[in-house]
Amino acid sequence: QSIALYKLADKNNIANAWLSWIPIGNMYILGKLGFEIYADDDKKNEVFTWILLGCSAATILLDDLSGIASLGVLVFSTWAYYYIFNKINIVELH
Predict the structure, then answer these.
(1) Rounded to whole angstroms, how far apart are CA atoms 31 and 77?
(2) Contact 66/59 with Cβ under 8 angstroms?
(3) pTM for the full predicted model
């Protein structure tokens, strides 16, 4: 996962692509790629990057809310991967 995120971040000129190698940092890179770079033009939303990052940090820092935060990470990371996969898959097929 870190290798793929790093290569995609580097290819798309995202600053601090090395964050892909850090557990919470890779969620930031995933959010930047999914919700800002590869999202549909009318659906770009930077706030989802920060929600994904916040949920990821909350799973580590907050023991009582880690289950809810984990669910947030699951939902938002799946959504980001969906945008990335769709955009890359469309580009590769044409």
Answers:
(1) 7
(2) yes
(3) 0.83
Q: What would the pLDDT profile of 12-68 be if each residue is shown by its tens digit?
A: 999 999 999 998 899 999 999 999 888 876 666 888 889 999 999 898 888 777 888
- Provide DSSP, the chain: -HHHHHHHHHHTT-TTGGGGGSTTHHHHHHHHIIIIISS-GGG--HHHHHHHHHHHHHHHH-STTHHHHHHHHHHHHHHHHHHHHHHHHHHHH-
The structure tokens listed for 66 are 């880690």
Which tokens sit at 88? 């890359």
Asked if 29 and 5 touch (Cβ cutoff 8 Å), the reply is yes
**Number of Cβ atoms within 10 Å of the Cβ of 42:** 5
Confidence (pLDDT) at 16: 93
The rounded distance, in Å, linking the Cα atoms of 12 and 23 is 20
